Amino acid sequence: MSALLATPGRIDWVDYAKGICIILVVMMHSTLGVEAALGHPSWLNEFINWARPFRMPDFFLISGLFLASRIDRPWRAYADTKILHFGYFYLLWMTIQTVLKGWHGPDGVWGLPHYWLTALVEPLGTLWFIYVLMLFFITVKLVRYVPVWIVWPVAAALELATIHTGWLAIDEFASRFVYFYTGYVAARWIMSFAAGLSRVDAPSLLAFLATWVLVNLWGVHSGLAFMPVLSMVYGFAGGAAVITVAQLMSRIRLFEPVRYCGENTLPVYLAFFLFMAATRVVLIKSGIFADGGVISLIVTAAGVIGPLVMHWIAIRTPAWFLFVRPAFARLSGRKAQPAAGTLSAGQPKPV
Question: Per-domain residue ranges for the chain?
Fold first, then answer.
């Protein structure tokens, strides 16, 4: 249990929020994969569809939350920690995925070079989040002196435009940048909101969440949650709700594993596909469980727990480079240190 204890200097509710988001992401991929293999939807599909309006928006909102403390660093230092850092893990794990997936492609081993080169411009599978995150870090650095009242409306307009070019990087950038940028420019207000929630009694927070659950459910089933303007409203409302849930969870030690997941989102995001795919294949072929929803939940658990165990083992063995960036991939030339394991811009000590 001691391994789950919070690292000093981190902000609990932030890690709980990220933990919620990464679990929802793994659950989405696990459920869709199981349903595709079975050829029909499961009862869990309703839940992942319900989470669709806020799942990724909140992840990007939290990812931009602490960028203000780093945005003014010189380009070299900034690029090292915010671009090269994620670039290293993208290239490494993109290569791993390319070999594992491309090997079984129609062209076999001869198709691997083309598959790998394509992934440089078209984000590969589950790794698209890291790819787009790098683009966000670059963009915010470039526009940091442009007034917020100019950048934010442009970012909002991109989301409202529902751009579909067929290139995942462009489409996801357009639909998600407003949330990342809001996390960056509105960090003080978001932190104040979260601090205010800590002073509200649990019954009041639960009443708010119950109302939000119903409104979000209505929006999803009616389609309103995916309409222009309203989609952004539902996205930010969901972000507020996740922060509220995170604050409630931080009051109960029972949910410590969720915080641990949030503190180690990077290992989970990088490696969950390995455990997800393997568990799905075993469960479906074995026929132990017939219910798609139950299979999806087990696959989700494997997709979350497996990478955490793998990370714990890897950083203590020669395989540490899978989750810790080595010195040769650093502009600073500093020795590699165990990674904090976060997909966000990092966390400073609370002030």
Answer: 2-329
